[in-house]
Amino acid sequence: MSDAPLAVTPGEPAGVGVDLTVALWAARGDDMPAFFLIDDPDRVRARAAALGLGIEVAAIETPAAAHATFSRALPVLTHAFATESVPGQPDPANGPATVEAIARAVSLVRDGSAAAVVTNPIQKETLYQAGFDHPGHTEYLAALSGPGTVPVMLLAAPALRVVPVTIHIPLSAVPAALTTERIVTTARITATALRRDFAIESPRLALAGLNPHAGEGGALGREDGDVIAPAVEALRAEGIDARGPLPADTLFHEEARTTYDVVLGMYHDQVLVPLKTLDFWGGVNVTLGLPFVRTSPDHGTALSLAGTGMARTDSLKAAIDLAATMARRRASTS
């Protein structure tokens, strides 16, 4: 439903997720999309008070109540945690409830009660201690979406969009994981999302080479010619505007960025480093390939800032704004 509120998850209870959410609501403007937080209302009230924010918190039982309360109070869909959270001190006992909040948000957006999912950062090490068996948010959301779902991580900022073809794996494992089929599948999902969710009619995809100088004709590695180049040829044969492999060291300067709509990098840091360097606070993590809209701030739990009031809301605001825009676009074309 395009007029449904956004579902915001708390992320790591000891992190900055609740800080950012209450601060963002407190500073909201008239154009802020309506959202609700899945959390313990008493916990949210206590954290807001500790941050010196005199805001109203309204416990709601259904997302439908969020619109009626959003202008006067932060709507919080009641969700229980096992123990009281201490800022900066993650407790594995709260891991199951943290994961369940994500599952609840997905369930609500899939039944139309919420328009999109916006996830605050999780502390993966703590969740692993609690038995979480997924590498991160992206993989867990794919599992919740059902068999055959192929998630693609897009990082978006006003100056740059990037997609890592391989994500949370060691750098030493990248060459073996990188296949022509994987690149083609990632590029197809990316092109479809740029058309549907970003209103880019003919997306231009730039594919970075794996090796320095895109392999120097094989002198610096065979993957660029043997794996990436065939993927580009296959994509172009399908009518997708793709080019590469291109040397990564000349892909991200201002003039180069005018020639494409997204860069597909072959590994995580190849594309996340330039995006975060260009716009650390404005980046948004978007999961493509899901049957619902999901965005997230492009930063971690910032445990050292939790409870201090020093955490910046820029990325969460950008994530909420983008989620609302994507949800409207999907609703208008469904």
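Next protein, fold it too.
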Amino acid sequence: MYPVAAFNRRLATYVGRVRDVWVEGELSELRRNPAWANVFLTLKDSRTGDCLPATMQRLRFEAIAPPLAEGERVQALGSAQLYEARGELSFRLAVVARVGAGDHAAGLERLRRRLAADGLFAPERKRPLPRFPRAVGLVTGADAAARGDVVAAIATRFPAVRLVVAEARVQGPGAPYAIVGALRSLAACNGVDVVILARGGGSFEDLLPFSDERVVRAIAASPVPVVSAVGHEQDEPLCDLAADVRAPTPTAAARLVVPDLDELQGALTRARQRLGTGTTRLLERDRTRLGRSRERLTAAPPLYVERRRAVLDRSAARLQALSPRATLARGYAIVRAAETVVRDAALLAPGARVEIELARGGVGARVEDVRP
């Protein structure tokens, strides 16, 4: 008979021999804390629901990029160990790697970081979409529903635009090569001012071609803007990050690249009405201004003449006041001797003849005496 402590110690010895074992399962019940040295988690068999508690050094777990999350399927290398005090079995992890979609997700994350470092996702390289494209290019599958959505939306919104369709494989190993070729052919097509890359929803694996490095670089190198409408709104293939504009659906992409004809006609009607109203208002204002100018021009000549008459009257009054005639009219006289105005009596001698000018007429006289 063994005491519990001795039994657990002996059992731990046997358990400790289970080393360097790979176990595959779904990550769940993840518990971690910055103050803890270890991370606690559970590996679950998704088919049977069986669980295996596990631990891993926190720093080693947090070094995994991109970070692991619950629900991901992983393969873990570790060793079995028994916590003797509680008799609990645990799996001590040394290495954790994603499998399946998780492995692809990790690879895509590494590719995303590398392409981002190359500047392919930089906001400053995004180009605005043309307001009125001459032609719209469409890359899509041959029988894809996305093609019908785009064609119907463009035909409804702006029938005048030309639509150039390049069919390509959008799923499977050859899809990236086909998509790149279609993008290049549309960009080289005369008149194509914008390209839509469209595909409906699908599984994670179905959308992998749109995260292929060749496709992403072809989108970034396109001489015309590219609108990405791939998958559902929650999907985010790498082509969305490289495209100039991301649309949640193919129909939304069509609405982005062409204007709405009804809205344009409505805007033109409103603009025509504003122009008519503005022209009428401008003509009325000019008519009123011309009427006031006519009134001023009609009144100006008499007013001007009256003002000039008043000036002349004032000038005549000043001249009249300064005239010698005015002085004579007040009873004064002008005495001349030998055609010279006499201002000093001393210049005359008795018997000298003088002419005296009065306000009316004049007289001739001789000097009888001179008084100083």
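About the second fold: The two ends are 177 Å apart (CA to CA).
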